[in-house]
Amino acid sequence: MKQSVKLIVGNWKMHGVAADLVEARALIESVHDVRADCRIALCPPATLTDRMRQVLAGGRIELGGQDCHQAPSGACTGSVSAEMLVDAGATLVILGHSERRGAFGETNEEVSAKVEAAIAVGLEPIVCVGETLEQREAGQAAAIVSAQVEGSLADGLSERPFAVAYEPVWAIGTGLTPSLEQIAEVHAAVRSAMIRRLGQAARRAPILYGGSVKPDNAAEILGVSEVGGALVGGASLKAEDFLKIIRAA
Ligand SMILES: O=C[C@H](O)COP(=O)(O)O
């Protein structure tokens, strides 16, 4: 199912100090003439969330977190809860990013628990899935991603807004992207897995593509059937580049 309203999300990852908010300000100033049926969100590091809320106040750009803990509070040194993100102004949260699945060993079960924690406080989860290069070369991309979708989504999502982001691990930060046919194939598999897990209600949730989305490839990727938006890393750090991707939507 092709989504009419694209969701374009910038993930700043572990980049950004207060001085970099100039990029968010530049984006705000330039985004006025972008057509209204495109949703835009920025996900800064947790330390900048509240300050970015002040920068984005009153505008059309939404604010998200990059992760949250599955517990509502407690002895979890260094972690940020879903409620803390809401308190700092976030309305969305990226969960299960491959950098967290890889570097922090997050399992589908943990991601699913984080999804439950997020929706319990009204956050819109963006649940990330994606295969490694080894898995793709073994012909397992669709199967791996489908299993991640079924394992990472949570029951409560059938009645809540959410998105899934397909990000091939080998495409993140590398400048490599799958072919448009490969993107279409995996997005169709993701949609089927979403419906198996949550029923027909899952048809309304957008499936984003992420992995080396740049100004020069955004239009063709966003034109693929089932691509409901983009999760953008490196190119979201510069307002000029991110704006070009937004315009492509
Ligand atoms: O969350 C964003 C993705 O990991 C993509 O990152 P990238 O656009 O730098 O490849």
Automatic annotation (TrEMBL):
Q: Give any Pfam family that matches.
A: TIM
Q: Does the keyword Cytoplasm apply?
A: yes
Can you tell me which residues bind substrate? N11, W12, K13, G173, S212, G233, G234
Where's it found, cell-wise? Cytoplasm
Q: What sort of enzyme, by top EC class, is this?
A: isomerase
Q: Pathway, according to UniProt?
A: Carbohydrate degradation; glycolysis; D-glyceraldehyde 3-phosphate from glycerone phosphate: step 1/1; Carbohydrate biosynthesis; gluconeogenesis; Carbohydrate metabolism; erythritol degradation
What keywords is this UniProt entry annotated with? Cytoplasm, Gluconeogenesis, Glycolysis, Isomerase
The role this protein plays is: Involved in the gluconeogenesis. Catalyzes stereospecifically the conversion of dihydroxyacetone phosphate (DHAP) to D-glyceraldehyde-3-phosphate (G3P).
The entry assigns this protein to a family as follows:
Belongs to the triosephosphate isomerase family.
Q: How does it assemble?
A: Homodimer.
Query: In its UniProt entry, what is this protein called?
Result: Triosephosphate isomerase
**Organism, per UniProt?**
Brevundimonas intermedia
